[in-house]
Structures are given as structure tokens and as C-alpha cells.
Design goal:
The complex is a heterodimer. By secondary structure, chain A is an all-alpha fold. Helix content of chain A is 71%, strand content 3%. Chain A has one domain (12-346): ABC transporter involved in vitamin B12 uptake, BtuC. Chain A has helices at residues 22-44, 52-59, 67-100, 112-126, 133-152, 160-185, 188-199, 207-226, 228-234, 238-243, 248-270, 276-288, 295-313, 325-346, and strands at residues 9-13, 16-20. In chain A, helix 1 (22-44) packs across helix 2 (52-59). By secondary structure, chain B is an all-alpha fold. Chain B has one domain: ABC transporter involved in vitamin B12 uptake, BtuC. Chain B starts with a helix and ends in a 7-residue tail after the last helix. The chains are: A mainly alpha, B mainly alpha. Chains A and B meet through helix 6, helix 7 and helix 14 of A and helix 5, helix 6, helix 7 and helix 14 of B. Chain B: The chain crosses the membrane at residues 60-80, 92-113, 119-137, 205-224, 244-271, 283-307, 313-331. Chain B: This is Iron ABC transporter permease. Chain B: It is found in: Cell membrane. Chain B: One of its GO terms (molecular function) is transmembrane transporter activity.
Amino acid sequence: MSITSGTGKPLRAGRFSLLVRPRTVVVCTALLLAAAAVGVVALGTGEYRLTPGQVLATLAGGGPPGASFVVTELRLPRIATGLLVGAAFAASGGIFQSLARNPLASPDIIGFTAGSAGGALLVIVVLGGGAVGVPLGAVLGGVVAALLVHGLARRGVGGAGGRLVLTGIGVTAVLGALNSYLLTRASFAEAQQALLWLTGSLDGRGWSNALPVAAVLVAVLPAVVLTSRRMALAEMGEDAAVALGVNTARTRLWLSAAGVLLAAVATSAAGPIPFVALAAPQLARRLTRSPEPGIGTAAAMGAALTAGADWLADGRVLPGTPLPVGVLTAALGGGYLLWLLVRERRAGRT
Amino acid sequence: MPRTAPRLAALLVAALALLAVTAALSIAVGTKGIGPAGIWHALAHPTGTYDDTVVRRLRLPRTALGLAAGASLGLAGALMQGLTRNPLADPGILGVNAGASLGAVAAISLLGVQSPSGFVWFALAGAAAATAVVYLLGAGRSGRGAAATPVRLALAGTAVQAALLGVNQAFQILDSAALDKMRFWVVGALTVDNGMHVLAETGPLMLLGALIALGLARPLNAVALGEDSARALGARPGRTRALAVLAITLLCGAATAACGPIGFLGLMIPHAARALTGPDQRWILPFSMVLAPVLLLGSDVLARVAAGSDSELQVGVVTAVLGGLAFVLLVRSRRMAEL
């Protein structure tokens, strides 16, 4: 059995086993360091500038007088939210890409994001918004849409992964139309608030946004990483996986649930930041050159990407109007996507 | 039932009759109840009464736009499915309408263009760019006919669409005046200010696109047999594809500039047409062209009745909901493999 091994070493813990490839470990560590570095630089950027050394000293309890308030009270919550949300979106995207066996599958595309946008819009337009109501509506809407897609995709042509994607596209279209309709029914102020939320923004995020994401990541991510071997087998196709002793239906259900939970909690914290879920897992996979999904690496990549994009977008680095992070990720994601499509075409896989 | 030419011609006449009935309904039904006599009065010899104004200034342009945009989008969808041989091809799903929207939004936001006549060219440019991407994806490697699978094409289109939408949203966030205009336009509606004027400016482009499209029916039939057979039959596949892309761009770009992005007509209608006619493009294209406005105008009448007097339900919402459901049903059925 050396389908996924490469030059890796298996680590075993009871009935779980994890294959550890040196390159993956190096890349993962490097990405985590990069995410931390982005965080430190961002903590020092703004009206009140600090060198990375001063930031680290402040975090350790020392640092210049007054820096502690700016760094830990004002900037840290937003940056922590960005890192955590990026990790959660990327992990969710990695899971769905693995399930659908397609590098373009992500919560953006298979219905979850449109559902959560619909839930949030309903709360904003019909119930008048609210700091608790909007995220809650988003989570409920996303979960309902995911359940709907999952239920509808149980029967039909093609593999289960392909059906999931296509059904998601159909449901996304219906929900998207209803969302546009809700936007036309809103007052102008409501429409502006809704649009900002729908784009994905980290502006004004605090610990109450970051902590739930952290809790879900801690609870779900290790289990997902431990099942990555089963996922790798499932990626070989339904029949092969069953023949190799993987209960594909159960694995699929559990992974879908984990993916939806991660996307839901991240969306509730920062809105549906586009393309992180799509791009981060693929970029991570290219770096590790690994045939495995590599959810952990994807999460590290997502954290670095999202925090970096927010640092660039909010007007402290580049001059100009502060933009919500979602605008930058959409533009970068679009470019990445075109590159991916061209590459795949050249490889004859499209 | 054999699909003989006379029978199909009779069916087409029936479809045209259905279209006439729908168009009449679209003129007759509305919040303001106007009897047949009043309608006739307004159409034949108007004297400037209130009813005359309602019919001539509101309902007639709305119906005419629905006819033109519906025919364009249905034809574009049929052409796309014929070109890519992909059952899920649709100007909405593959991002062509989104490309046209982005072109229009950029023109509104960056250049301050206000009227459809101003941004139609930008919409055409956006549609052309998106169509080019789709063409690259759908035609297979170096045109050898190894077409993309339905899943891949639909995914690629959706992803392109998501990217375009993201940039679109950025424009709307940066420019709140654009947002206030765009949030109504992006839904897709036939209630356009000064509809006849808009139609006069976008109509010729739609007409040109339709003429090219109908002329392509026979070459598309040949191309469907595969590259080599098509050449043997005297068709020129490269030229056919290029002309098809041109026609799709004209049809989708002009229709989107006029009415906003209306999705899914191009998906549902060609499937319905194909169920009636079989695989011959010479019948599929005209049937799509006639049946699509039936659905569009029908949805518009339905939306008018459903929404009542105090609000507006845009037709784009109705077609997207119907079309999305049709899409899901299509995925669940066995027709997927048929193209």
C-alpha cells in the first residue's frame, strides 16, 4: 500500500494513522511562520508605527509605553480574526475540493456562500439587522443551503462529487436571484450595509468574532487532518475506495459536515470572503507537491493569505480608500483562477 | 411521432401563435385594468388619454424588449449548447452575462455613462471577453473536439462568474451612486426607462447576431459530427466557431445592455426545443428563438400578477428561480448525457 506514501513516514495513533512527508512538514512550518510574520508586520502598521521587534516586545509584555493598548486592544482582534477566518475558509475549501475531486469546488461555488448571504440579507432587510442576528442568519442560511444541495445531489448522473457541484451551481443561481431581489427591496442604507457584509470585511472585528472560529478550528481541524488518508483514498474514486475498505458514504458525510461548519463559523465572523477557500488549498498543494489534500497546509496558507490581503487592502500600506478585504481576494482570486484554467487546459484536463 | 418537416413546421407555427398570445397578454395584463377596447384604442388611434399613455409608453416597450431579449438569449443558449456540445451551457451559467454586466458597471462607475446606449459597447466588450474564455474552455484542446465535460465547463463558468461578480461588487462599494443604479439593473428587468429608445439602440445588434446565428445552423450540424467529418462535408469548423462566438457576443451583450443579466433562458429553452425537434440545429435554433420570449414574457406577466400593485418583482428573479430548478432537475435526470 504505497498509494499516498511518496517518501513519507507513517505516524500511528490507535486506529488513525498519518503519513508525514518531510516536504509537507517544511512547507507547513514555513507557511505558519509566514502567517505569523504577516500578523506581526500588520500589528505594527498604522497611524502609530512599530517595528516588528517592538511588536514582539509588546506582545511579550514589554515594549514602548502605550503600545500595549494599540497592539493588543485595537489591532490584535482584527488580525487574529483574519488569520483564523482564513484558516477556516481554506480548510473548508480543501475538504470540498477533495470531496468533489475538483480543484474548482469550494463553498463559494457549491451553494453555501449564497445561502449564508441570503440568510444575512433576510435578517438585514426584513428584521432590520443586528450584530448577533446577521451572523446567525448567515450560519442558518448556509447550513440550510448545504443541506438542500446535499439532499438534492443524492440522485442523478455522474459521480457523487460532480453531482454535488452541479446541484450547488443550480441552487446558487436560485439563491443568487432571490438575494438580488432582497437587495432591491431594501432601503439604500440597508443595501449598502448588506453589500459590505456580502463582500467580506474584517473592519471592526473583535474577540467575540475571533473566539468562535478558534474554537471550531481546534475542535474540527485535527480530526479532519487525521482522516486525510481516507480522503486520499476516496479521491481515487468511489469504487476503488470502497474496495480498499473505506466507508465512502460515512467519510463523505462527516467531511461535508466539517466543511460546512468551518465555512459557517468563518462566514459569521467576517462575511463570505471570496476565493480564499478556492485558492489556498491549491496553492498549498502546489508548494508541497503532495498528492494528498493537505488540509493543515491549506489552513496555514489561508491564514497567511487572508491576513496579508487585509493588511494590503485597508489603506494603511497602499494609499487610497480603505477597501474591504473581500474586494482584494476577489481580484486576486480571479487572476489565480484564470491562470488555473489556462494551465489545466494546457495539461489537457479541462 | 415522426419528426417530419411538415409536422415540425406546423409545430413552429403553433409556437408562434403561442408567442402572439403571450405578447397580447403582456400588453393587456397589468396593475391598471384596461379592457380590450381601451387597448385597441391605444394601439390603433391613440388620443393621449391616460390609458393610451400606459399602453404605449409602458406596456408596449416592455413587451417589445421582452420579445427581442428573449429571442436573443434563447438563440444564444442554443448556439452555445451546439458549439460546446454541452448540455449545461448557458450565457448565464458560463459567465457571459456577468461579463456584460461588469462592462456596463465599469462604464457607469468609471466614465459616468448613464444610458444603455452609452454602455452597450462596454457590455459587448465584457461579453466578448467572457465568451472568449468559454470558447477556449469549451472547444477542447486546439479544436480537436475533446470537449470539456459538463461538470468542468459549468464549474469553470461559475468560477469566472464569481470572479467577475467580485470585481463588480468592488465598483459598487466604491461608488454608492453606481450601487443605487446597479442593484436594480443587475436583477434583470423589462421595465427600462425609455424602453423603445433602448430597443432602437440595441435591437440592430441583436438582429445582426440572430441573422449570423440562423445562418450557422447547417455548419453547426456538420461540426457536431466531429472535426474530420465536418471538413469532409465541406464545412469550415474554425470559421463556424468564430462566427458562433461573434453571434453569442452580439446577442448576449446587446440583450444584457438592454435588460440587465437575465439568466437561464438560454439553458432551459434549447432543451425544450430539442425535445420537440431532435438534434437538427436548423429546427432547434428557430424553436429556441420563438419559445424563449414566450417564457420571458410569460414570467414577466406572472411577476406582475404575483407582485400586485405596490411592488415590483423583476422578471430576472422569476426566470432564475425557474431556471435554477430546471438546472437541478436536468442534473438529476438522464438527459445530461444526450448532447
